[in-house]
């Protein structure tokens, strides 16, 4: 399919630290050994960006596929699309005209088939948004390196031998997210899953600086706002992530503003990006008031301890009488 192939070079703005480089190194080892890589983690952990970075290291064309509940197996491998008509007119004998007409269906490869034939790197983003049945063609591709094609294809091949340069990188969101299906065990057994945790604060600051061009202090203030709102509203449907922080950096830089919530424009920008009222954002950034602890024991009268009476000695009794 035209437009399905993407050529990607390593991005200079991609932030690489020891943690990320370790993930990239392991992923490259799995891919070179012939195993698909599955990047799993919550929204905002950079799964898609990391998938493109890893794919760029392979120096192969990239075929991008986006998971969707409406996808079927034919959207992955291909289908019959239209007919081809041929007509033969035989007028060898002038008084006799012989005509033959034949119609044949036209098979059109879709993205998975194209990637398997051409040896592309397949990035299947959020693959578990697609129904598990639709992803069944991946099973033979990942295990036997063969893509089975529908049998109802006149005189055509029934399978495609996967090109030796083919690789696959899948990403997925947690199962508790809306619109996400549980990945079949048969598929997970054929991939190597790398679980991504939340990005640490220092790395997020570096990413915002690299992706937006703002200064380190501005990036740090944006991260503080994102973290403050996320902690105050952990269950909000628009819980702010790194992606929202990058958007805030780009908008504020374009507007020539600093992340000062006292500025009505800035407060409105964060409210729009987070989907949370500006007053709630401002409240999330106020330091919590600590309650003063009172020690009740300090108000009590000190206990008087009588001296211990020595056995056989009555001098203490005379001292008390005096």
What's this, in brief?
The chain is α/β, with parallel strands linked by helices.
Across the major sheet, the strand order is: 1-3-6-9-2-10
- Sketch the major β-sheet: 6 strands, mixed
Order of helical and strand elements: EHEHEHEEHEHEEEHEHHHHHH
Shape: elongated
Judged by helices, strands and strand pairing, the structural class is alpha/beta
Compute the number of helices: 12
Folded structure, characterized:
- The chain is of the alpha/beta class.
- The protein has helices at 18-32, 47-58, 73-77, 111-118, 137-143, 185-188, 201-212, 216-232, 242-255, 264-274, 278-284, 315-321, and strands at residues 5-6, 37-40, 62-66, 78-90, 98-109, 121-125, 146-148, 159-161, 167-172, 192-195.
- A 6-stranded mixed beta sheet has the order 1-3-6-9-2-10, with helices on both faces. It has a two-stranded antiparallel sheet with strand order 4-5. It has a two-stranded antiparallel sheet with strand order 7-8.
- A hairpin with a 7-residue loop joins strand 4 and strand 5 (98-109).
- Helix 7 packs across helix 8, helix 8 (216-232) packs across helix 9 (242-255) and helix 9 (242-255) packs antiparallel against helix 10 (264-274).
């Amino acid at each position: 399919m035209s437009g399905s192939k993407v050529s990607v070079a390593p991005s200079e703005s991609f932030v690489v630290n020891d943690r990320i480089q370790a993930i990239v190194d392991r992923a490259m080892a799995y891919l070179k050994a012939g195993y698909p890589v599955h990047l799993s983690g919550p929204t905002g952990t950079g799964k898609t960006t990391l998938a493109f970075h890893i794919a760029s290291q392979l120096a192969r064309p990239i075929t991008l596929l986006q998971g969707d509940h409406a996808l079927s197996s034919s959207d992955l491998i291909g289908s019959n699309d239209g007919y081809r008509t041929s007509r033969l007119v035989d007028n060898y004998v002038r008084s006799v005209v012989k005509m033959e007409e034949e119609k044949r269906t036209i098979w059109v490869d879709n993205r998975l088939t194209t990637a398997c034939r051409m040896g592309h790197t397949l990035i299947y983003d959020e693959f578990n948004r697609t129904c598990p049945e639709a992803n069944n063609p991946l099973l033979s591709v990942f295990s036997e390196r063969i893509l089975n094609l529908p049998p109802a294809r006149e005189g055509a091949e029934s399978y495609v031998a996967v090109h030796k340069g083919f690789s696959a990188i899948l990403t997925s969101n947690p199962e508790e997210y809306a619109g996400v299906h549980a990945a079949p065990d048969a598929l997970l057994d054929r991939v190597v899953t790398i679980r991504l945790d939340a990005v640490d604060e220092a790395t997020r600051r570096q990413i915002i600086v690299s992706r937006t061009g703002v200064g380190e202090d501005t990036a740090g203030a944006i991260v503080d706002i994102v973290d403050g709102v996320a902690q105050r509203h952990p269950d909000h449907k628009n819980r702010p992530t790194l992606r929202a922080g990058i958007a805030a950096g780009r908008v504020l830089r374009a507007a020539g503003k600093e992340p000062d919530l006292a500025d009505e424009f800035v407060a409105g920008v964060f409210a729009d990006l987070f989907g949370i009222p500006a007053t709630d954002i401002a409240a999330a950034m106020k330091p919590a008031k600590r309650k003063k602890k009172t020690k009740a024991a300090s108000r009590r009268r000190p206990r008087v301890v009588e001296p211990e009476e020595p056995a056989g000695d009555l001098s203490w009794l005379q001292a008390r009488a005096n």
